[in-house]
């Protein structure tokens, strides 16, 4: 997803060097990146001081409309300057090794997708004034939760590359390679990354808690936020559980995708924007339905990119999902089709390749061949397009504000990775494809979810 371009805003966003390029200084504890100047010197804020206004100035909404990622980036720069300064007061090594890495990771790279969904849902629902200011803070909090999710995800998946640079745990491991025994080096990097992710999550909750909201709005926002945090953990666990059990169920794959990606990446950010704008239940439900469809398409596209995309484009090594044995919908469809066709050759390739950490490029090419030959790739591409179309139908079922509606529509299609509107899909999908999932209106409004809305289509698709 490409953020809209603006001439004047990017220079204001702090652009500290990434960990792998930071200058180093040696100490008895190892090498530490020199402190990055985020706009406040270490120790300049006393403990407990609040250096950033609780609501940013958005008197001219057009400035944010022109470049939402830059606006969120500016606010993040201010918030993280305060947090890293407070961390330095606690301990310089902690600040250098963890706090500054969390800040750099959050500020560098990324498309600010979730914060854009919050903003454009708010604008499409007529939100402005203090609600718009609050939306920027909620967007910043979501970016910090994303930092937590990605840092932890890289540890769990054993991925050493993120956004074209060393993953945080790999970077810490390299920093201490000269002073730590080889057997402990990797373990230390992973442990440090877990703490870094926890720190990002704590900061995210702090930002949300410090956001000034009317009581009713606060209840709605906190309900959505609370649900989202548990859903993303549940989805990640299902992902891990599917790997260890070698699950090839398309139903379980869609359930995990819905929890860890559709809800967290699209639906819940839209619900947060709607809540901040005070949208009614029907509008909120329509936005959530659109977000559910697009969110599942988003994850299906990510699965395809992992196998067929290049590391230059994705920022991660190609084939990580195959080598880790991740239970993706793409692989589940391929296996189901190979079994139905009695294709022993394809099943043999999948059986010996999935979950092999040392799988060669030749072996990965064999898996790609099976995914194409069985029609799994084509079926997933077609499903992505249909989900995108279904999402647009939900979006068009309610009245939204003009430019906000158009920008939200474009953002949703881009997130789905769908081809331009009007293009014919590759062909009919397999019968195990997930159908358009309905939305629980209570959960969409931020209340407790009864069914968690994960039974439609997918549950009936178990092999």
TrEMBL record:
InterPro entries: Isoprenoid_synthase_dom_sf, Polyprenyl_synt, Polyprenyl_synt_CS. Residues 1-11 have a biased composition (Basic and acidic residues). The keyword Metal-binding applies. PROSITE patterns: POLYPRENYL_SYNTHASE_1, POLYPRENYL_SYNTHASE_2. Pfam families: polyprenyl_synt (PF00348). It comes from the Bacteria. Residues 1-43, 417-463 are annotated as: Disordered. Residues 417-428 have a biased composition (Low complexity). Keywords: Magnesium, Metal-binding, Transferase. Its cofactor is Mg(2+). Belongs to the FPP/GGPP synthase family. This is Geranylgeranyl pyrophosphate synthase. It comes from Streptomyces asoensis.
């Amino acid at each position: 997803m490409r953020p809209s371009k603006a001439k004047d805003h990017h220079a204001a966003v702090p652009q500290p060097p990434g960990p792998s390029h930071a200058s180093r200084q040696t100490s008895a504890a190892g090498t530490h990146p020199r402190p990055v100047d985020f706009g406040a010197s270490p120790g300049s804020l006393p403990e407990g001081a609040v250096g950033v206004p609780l609501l940013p100035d958005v008197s001219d909404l057009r400035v944010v409309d022109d470049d939402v990622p830059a606006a969120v980036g500016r606010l993040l720069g201010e918030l993280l300057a305060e947090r890293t300064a407070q961390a330095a007061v606690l301990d310089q090594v902690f600040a250098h090794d963890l706090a500054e890495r969390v800040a750099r990771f959050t500020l560098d790279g990324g498309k600010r997708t979730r914060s854009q969904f919050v903003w454009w849902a708010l604008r499409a629902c007529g939100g402005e004034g203090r609600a718009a200011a609050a939306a920027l803070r909620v967007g910043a909090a979501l970016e910090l939760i994303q930092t937590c999710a990605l840092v932890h995800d890289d540890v769990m998946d054993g991925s050493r590359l993120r956004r074209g640079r060393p993953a945080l745990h790999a970077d810490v491991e390299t920093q201490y390679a000269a002073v730590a025994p080889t057997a402990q080096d990797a373990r230390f990097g992973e442990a440090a990354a877990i703490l870094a992710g926890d720190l990002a999550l704590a900061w995210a909750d702090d930002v949300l808690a410090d956001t000034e909201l009317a009581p009713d709005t606060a209840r709605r926002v906190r309900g959505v936020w609370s649900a989202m945090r548990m859903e993303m953990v549940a989805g990640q666990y299902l992902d891990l559980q599917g790997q260890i059990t070698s699950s090839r169920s398309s139903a379980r794959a869609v359930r995990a995708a819905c929890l860890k990606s559709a809800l967290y990446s699209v639906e819940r950010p839209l619900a947060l924007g709607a809540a901040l704008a005070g949208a009614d239940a029907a509008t909120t439900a329509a936005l959530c339905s659109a977000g559910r469809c697009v969110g599942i398409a988003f994850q299906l596209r990510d699965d395809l990119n992992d196998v067929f995309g290049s590391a230059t484009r994705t920022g991660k090594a190609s084939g990580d999902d195959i080598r880790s044995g991740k239970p993706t919908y793409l692989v589940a469809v391929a296996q189901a089709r190979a079994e139905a066709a009695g294709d022993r050759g394809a099943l043999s390739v999948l059986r010996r390749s999935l979950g092999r950490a040392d799988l060669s490029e030749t072996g990965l090419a064999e898996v790609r061949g099976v995914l194409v030959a069985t029609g799994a790739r084509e079926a997933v591409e077609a499903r992505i397009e249909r989900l995108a179309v279904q999402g647009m139908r939900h979006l068009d079922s309610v009245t939204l504000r003009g430019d906000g509606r158009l920008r939200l529509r474009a953002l949703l299609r881009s997130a789905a990775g769908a081809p331009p509107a009007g293009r014919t899909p590759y062909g009919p999908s397999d019968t195990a494809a997930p159908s358009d999932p309905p939305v629980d209106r209570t959960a969409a409004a931020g209340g407790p979810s009864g069914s968690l809305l994960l039974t439609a289509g997918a549950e009936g698709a178990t092999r």
